[in-house]
């Protein structure tokens, strides 16, 4: 479904991504792990064109794009098939949960209000927020706000959802509800690429692990292999810290 080749990204003279290759098949749940500063967020931002790469190619559903010279039209065509869940939810403060989910469907996807409402309610039901359609973000816990953000992602019928540390801003007591929604999506076959420090999620829900270090992917393995047979010393150290 998604194949990235030789992705380079620098900020000034600082090379943050040093030629990454990765591929995601339909139904994959890929956990992107690695120490802080290794380039995980920058990778996600390049995949969703929030940053422009210095070089690299993206093959999405058989369409090939040069990441340096990609046009706005091409970006729009890929974004139609993807959704992004941010660390800090990025909800509109002055809109209800349902309005947060339907806004993009009405404005960007040009759905009728009725269709958008139906999709919005369905998505909120799916993340367990049927009772909160009319709640504003400040009336919701962090976990509920992140579930609204996941509902917003789902409502656009994406082929893949990118998650950038979706639980790292949450109080520990609220992490479980977000992870269990993500687990349910994974079980239903949603393709997901998840930057996370939640090793239990990576171990038990993802099928593939990518480990990043200093701007490079130094390991790509099945989750089982990654956790059961770590070979590289720096990965063993990392696992000792986080497991
Ligand atoms: P991670 O998500 O693994 O913690 P990041 O992708 O956030 O890593 O950051 C990788 C490196 O890129 C860090 O050294 C960070 O300081 C640098 N970086 C990230 N964004 C920017 C930016 N907008 N400008 C300059 N440097 C940046």
TrEMBL record:
GO terms for cellular component: plasma membrane. Keywords: ATP-binding, Cell membrane, Membrane, Nucleotide-binding, Transport. It comes from the Bacteria. Residues 2-239 form the ABC transporter domain. InterPro entries: AAA+_ATPase (IPR003593), ABC_ATPase_HisP-typ (IPR030679), ABC_transporter-like_ATP-bd (IPR003439), ABC_transporter-like_CS (IPR017871), MetN_ABC_transporter-like (IPR050086), P-loop_NTPase (IPR027417). The lineage of its organism: Bacteria, Bacillati, Bacillota, Erysipelotrichia, Erysipelotrichales. This is Amino acid ABC transporter ATP-binding protein (PAAT family). It is a peripheral membrane protein. Its main location: membrane. GO terms for molecular function: ABC-type amino acid transporter activity; ATP binding; ATP hydrolysis activity. It comes from Dielma fastidiosa. It is found in: Cell membrane.
């Amino acid at each position: 479904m998604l194949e990235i080749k030789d992705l380079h990204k620098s900020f000034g003279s600082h090379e943050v991504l040093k030629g990454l290759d990765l591929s995601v098949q339909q139904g994959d749940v890929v956990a992107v792990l690695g120490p802080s500063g290794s380039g995980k967020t920058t990778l996600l931002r390049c995949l969703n064109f929030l940053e422009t790469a210095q070089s690299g190619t993206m093959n999405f559903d058989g369409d090939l794009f040069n990441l340096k010279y990609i046009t706005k039209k091409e970006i729009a065509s890929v974004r139609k098939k993807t959704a992004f869940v941010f660390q800090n939810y990025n909800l509109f403060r002055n809109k209800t949960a349902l309005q947060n989910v339907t806004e993009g469907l009405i404005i960007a996807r040009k759905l009728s209000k009725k269709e958008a409402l139906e999709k919005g309610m369905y998505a909120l039901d799916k993340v367990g927020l049927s009772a909160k359609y009319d709640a504003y973000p400040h009336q919701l816990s962090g976990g509920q706000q992140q579930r609204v953000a996941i509902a917003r992602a789902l409502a656009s019928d994406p082929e893949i959802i990118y998650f950038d540390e979706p639980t790292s801003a949450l109080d520990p007591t609220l992490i479980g509800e977000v992870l269990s929604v993500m687990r349910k999506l994974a079980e239903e076959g949603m393709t997901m690429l998840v930057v996370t420090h939640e090793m239990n999620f990576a171990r038990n829900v993802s099928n593939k692990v990518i480990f990043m270090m200093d701007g490079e992917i130094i390991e790509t393995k099945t989750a089982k292999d990654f956790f059961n047979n770590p070979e590289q010393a720096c990965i063993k150290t990392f696992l000792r810290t986080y497991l």
